[in-house]
Each structure stands twice: as structure tokens, then as C-alpha cells.
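DATA CLASS: polypeptide
GOAL: derive C-alpha cells

***
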Amino acid sequence: MFLIEIAHPSGALTDDDRAAVARSIISGLMGTDEEAAIEGVAEETMRRARPMTHVAFRELTGWTNGNGPVSAEAAPPIWVTITVPEAWRDDMARPTTGFVRRAVRRLDNDHGWQRTGGDLWINMVGVADGSIGLNGKPSTADDVLEYMTEEFRAVLDAGRELPEGVLLDPMCGMQVRLDRNAITLDHDGETIGFCAPGCRDAYARRNGITVQTA
């Protein structure tokens, strides 16, 4: 679940500009951007994740800052709101804002725009459990994750070959390299790897496992 709304002054961006920005952000989030490729993503999970990811634009009239009306000659100010479940916010803030920032940088380069600072805002907003409207129903972050990974978990037992030193996240199917930065959970003598704390915690709640944190 990524709901990304991008506001800009009316007329500042063309349809082609908006399409390019949306395409850049989506390719980052979906792991198809060559600069930010995500390895080992389960296709079953991505089939659900793609239609749960939205980028839309809003044109605002009368845009004014502390110096007065914004100039049509300068790089247009851009105000981005990214909405995710609150439980995901800390984990997702840095990579997701990075994808958006990269998309805006490409746009600026295409137009020869130079930003002076204070004209690009990317705000990550978390929605509390029970206030998330998955398919129109009050839901939690765990509900969103369960829905997004349902197809993957249905075929999890089919078995998958993994490279040496790699674990499979049992919630979403991401391949996790077992190194010092790996997010793991030890249970019944088995080390289980996860792509993010959100997947680990959801898996633990689903299976009645207590997560030991430092």
C-alpha cells in the first residue's frame, strides 16, 4: 500500500512530465529501476503489490510562498504526500522518499531546473490500524500485508531453490542475504530471515512468537 499524491502549481508540469515522474517512482517501488533494483522479489507478492500502489497528481492554483506568488520561470515547487500504514512508516520513509527525490531530480534535469531549497517537500504519513481502508474495510497493517502476500504464502510450501547464504522471507517471499545486517528470528532451532521488521513482526504475531528486541 503506497498512496502517493504529488501537488504542483497549475500548468507547471505537462502530461508527459507527470507520466515520467510516476513511471520513475513506480519502477523504484516495484524494483524495476536499474539504479535501485530490488533482487529476489516474489512475483506472487508483486502481482498484489502493483495494483495497491498509486501515484496521482494535483494541480493547485494561486501557489504562493513567503516571497509571494511563485515564478513560472523557476523550478516549480513540489509537495508530495506518501501514505502508508503507520507500522510501515519508519521502515519505508528513507527508501520511498529516495525514489521520489530521484524522480524529481530526473524531471529537473530534463528541464534544466535548479532548485534553491525549500521548494521540494516529501512527507510520509502513517495511517493507524483500524483507520486503513483496504478494499473499503477498516483494516490493520497486518491485514494489508496478509492481503498483499496471500498468493505467495499459498505456494510457499512448493519449495524454491535459493543461493547459498540466502533465506526466504516467509511472509512476502523476499530473498534475504544472511549477513550481519539481516533481520532474523530464531524459532524452534531455525533461523528465519525477513526483508523488514514489519514482515518479521507480522509473522511473529501470526504464529504466536515473541520477538526479542535489544
User: Anything to note?
Assistant: The radius of gyration is 20 Å. Residues 86-111 form the longest helix (26 residues).
